[in-house]
Input
Amino acid sequence: MLTIVRFLWASFAIWTAYALHPSEAGVVDWHKALLGVPLTRPDFHRTTGAHGATRSVVLTATSNNVIGAVHPENGTVAWRYLFEDRDPVVGYKAYNDRLATLSGPGGATFRILDVNSGHLLHELHLHSADSGRLFEPVNLGVAIAFDDSDKSKDTFVLTNGHTLRRINGKSGDIVWGWTSPDQTSLVVYSKVVTTSDAIYLIGLAKSFASYTVHVSAISPDNGELLSDADVPSSIINGPQGLIVVSHEGTRGKSVRLAWLEQARIHSVALTPQLKDKPTIKKGSAYLQVHDIGLQEKGLFVATKEDGSGRVIRFSEDGALKVFWEFADSSPKYTESTYAGGLDKDGWPYIARVYWSHVFRQASAHVLAPHLAEGKGLVTGFTFPFETQKHGIIANVAVDAANPEEFRVLSRLVLTTTTGAVQLWQQDQHQWTREESLADIRVAEMVELPEPQLVASQVGIEETESFGARLRRQLADAQDFPQYAINFAKRFATGSYASASSSIAPASNDTSPLSRDTFGFRKIIVAATSHGKVFGIDSANGEIIWSRVFGLGWAAEVGGRIFPLKIFTTRTVSDGDTPQVVIVGQRKADNSLVDTVAFHIDALTGEDVSGTSIGQDILQGQDVIAGALVEAYLFQDGPTKYVVLLDEYLQVHLFPDTPENADSFHKVAPSIHLPLRTGTAGSHRLGGHKVSPEKEFTGRHIAYPIWTASLPPNEDVRSIVTRPHEPVASLGKVLGNRTTLYKYLNPGVVVVLTSTSTPSGPATSCGVYVIDGTKGTILYHANLPAAGGVCDVKAAFTENWLVYHYYDDGSANADQAKSYRMVSLEFYEGSGVDDKTSSSDLSAYSNDTTRISVYEQSYVFPRGISTITTTSTKFGITVKDILVAGNNHQVQSFPRRFLDPRRPNRKPTAEEQEEWLIQYDPLLPDDPKRVLSHRYQVARIRKIITSPALLESTSLVFGYGVDLFFTRVAPSKTFDVLNENFNKAQLVLTVAGLALAIVITKPMVRRKRLRERWYAS
Amino acid sequence: MECVVGLNVIGSKEKVRNCIDACGTPLLTSSVTSTVDITMMIPLLILTLVSLLCSSLAFDLKGRVVWNEICPGIGDLGQAKVVLDNGNLYGSVTRNGQFVIPEVPSGTYILSVVAHDHAFERLRIDVLDTDTLPEVRPYVPGTPLSPPSPVTLPYPITLIPRARYDYYTPQESFNLVGMFQNPMMLLMLGTGVLMLAMPYIMKNMDPEVLQEFKERQAKITDIQSSIQNGDLKTGLSAMMGGEEKTSPAPAPKPQASAARNRGKNKRR
Output
């Protein structure tokens, strides 16, 4: 009875939507919110609350076009604001409780955010993106200044290098605007300074061989030009060397402009009439001036030619004076980094941070100018910065407190060249954020080995004596009662490994990495473009190991490594620790490009090739002296190796062993490679074969055998290949017992193209399905290019292709504008029961093009950034489509709704048997299928899927700005006991039935006996 | 062409600036500083010149999100934007719910809200070449754009959060009372009880009633089997004729039934 009910329930449950239970959120999945690698120096920003309590955040603008705030106490994200890709942040400034940002070309859009919550208060469009002037660097020609003279909270915004606007702080409207009358001249303003009398715009005018300083004073009330002057000067290296120091004196705010000219500091006082003449500061020669963020406190740093730094202060009497000298610089140290910060009471502090090559430690000196009766107090300490793990210190921000006299406590925020952000409280490390994970280029999930069982006495049975054996067995047996009790307990109430429980190891677990019962735990090897590779535990997102890529010979000139491909060359099933190969392109600063391969043990991050020493920098192997065209993983029995093609289509192998060369030599004649070649804008598609014998260069070479006959203005954007996955069934049995055989030609590729007029925007986009062995076009669709951009996303698995695009309705006046998702299936032959064995067919057979296509188009609810399918171990489970939507969600769309064979009428009984439902153009947008649920998974660029040991479950890892991991079961977890399976109940039922038998058995026996006696 | 400044309904000054910025010609930019003067003085000739140069209208589409109990504020909504079509034109929602989509050229657009946790309706916006305000209409996704809906909504646009996405399904937990409340379960329990109690009921029954019951049961089985065999006619005739058969010969039946009964008991 119970089983019947259970069966009924189960059968209902299979067709209800798969969704997350509230208790599973955060257990089966994890999400890491990231900001991106800081572009500039982060800032400590302190705000004072209503009751005088202060709170501070670390503000930063990042390479992912995000402005974010981090809690300095624990390194978690307080808030972040994501800017669109075409709206890059060009400037930001925080003042009290607000943060003003400028973004877009020339500062086209102005926004004000709340500095504590990140809420948008005002958004104002200042000019169109087309009329924005592009400067190099981007922050040139834009500036923000707050009106600190009164409580109006007004902001002065300089955009496009020549337009100044005053923006009302309450309403966000423009109070007045002023545009430089002669924008055609070469004056580009780059700084704004506010005083109660005038707003000073400071810019540079290009003159012969150098720049001249140009200053304009503007009335803060109505935006009228008060005066305009060229300051006699000649500056060689751009506006970075311009420093405006101000001082709040008894007679109001006095401002002085300083710059470096011919190794001397020149300066001029700024007054509304601009009458002052520049003065030259006598004394030492300087190499550089540094803006340390304390210009409003009248402080900046200038470095001398010998490397020592001097703090220069704008003093009461209006002169620039050397206040302090950070001496003690020598070649034993790196160049110092200077930063300024304010404490709770607004006193300035200056920090100097450098790395000592001798002590292999970083040192910091913090100067408090106001202490020691105004003479200045320096506190110094060293801290163990791990340079082999985090690279070189790029930027520093300082925050300090002065709890008692002669004691300064400081915290430093460091950003490094590998994208780490660290907070040090004096010499104590507080936290590290690995922000380079927001820029993962390639990632792969690698299976973990099984847990190792202790089997100490295996193999000693033969040699040990009887007595010893008896003793050992008795010793083993003394645990038996415990075991028996445990067994009984487990049998009665026992919990089994559940498919929805956490697989994260306990925090104090020190056992080696091993997989869990169902293989949900894997290691994610992710390589970033900031020269670091990470091993991430898929159970909880913790970083298990990380290595810094070595630059090889380019270490002397500098360079960067961009990972392109990752391959698992050895898995656990091959019998040893798993290994991965990362193929990257090294761009040296002297413009030479090489292809490098890194061979790593996936469990520890150790170098397999053995060229690196210990935990030092990971050294790669130069495979190709030049660019890479394509790389593939080849499998020949148990051996796997990477095949790389260079620009001359020569074949390189990695690892380049004689066995691999032999193996490749054997398979070379049967290889067909569809390749995308050519330059940007005119990529072509061609089929290639590999020469059976080595050429005179000692390498196999790929030669073209066909070229896709696409129009000359059609650019091949990308090639989508089928993932290497098992196909469980070769056909689909229909309701009427006929079979459609799947078209599984292994050479088929999907090609996405864009057609454009010369140097113009794209006019149309194309999707082709091409037989990669001979170039036959099997399917072609022309799609509209909305906004002149081709943004078609495609996923291809087995015989099923799904692509997504935006239809702007231009093709047909009646047609709706919407995102579309087209689902296609390819079957062999001309219809049912027409089998051509496409998966084993010779490439030269005519049957490879004899296919039938089912196609259906659906209206999709939103734009997406990536699309993929789930993948399972044997391919039996139905495949769902996973997409990352533009609303920062990862959502799954079931195959049932995307089935191209959905009938356009009420389904017949036969179709119902196949679970087909009537065609509806609108795809349901079911929030229950949002895998990322309440997580804001920002800008996922790619989703990778990997099978678990359970056939029903697929592991999903998405990366972009954020990292997100979860597991999905498109057909529910049919291969494990249901979560709700109640073992106690089952045991009780069985026990109850047994009891009933015991009771009724004598009754029945008695009754039978009686019947025999009294039978007629 | 929309640079006809004097006729503009909202923010003529702003519009001039938009237009000028969009065209970006030096002739026009010199006039940015004194827009008021332009509106008064520049002759129509120059305006037509402007319209020739600046061929597309730039209209700032304004509106606001109305906070309600589904979404009480920006903290709940998070970073959200209002987009036209595929998001090339957009405006962000500010703390007081307002948004501005700048420089929208004339045309027909679908307006949607990109928010993480909230559902909004979609609207069809027609920005016109003439000086009138844009037309706002409700839009159902997946429907053709023409003919447009006869219903028009007021401008500035008002967007109301319609629902908060619910991502979770409640955990189905085992519930004994709930299990027995299931009608299927009740039915099964009832049958079970009846099955167990049947021999006792039969034993205590009056022989005549018992016989009648037996006959009826036999007939039902007959009809059932005939229906199952697809032989409706026999089933029907059995239904009709059964009654006639039973009435004339009630006597010999008890024995047979008793025998059958006995057999049954034996089998037990």
About this structure: Residues 1-17 of chain A have pLDDT under 50 and may be disordered. The CA atoms of residues 491 and 720 of chain A lie 50 Å apart.
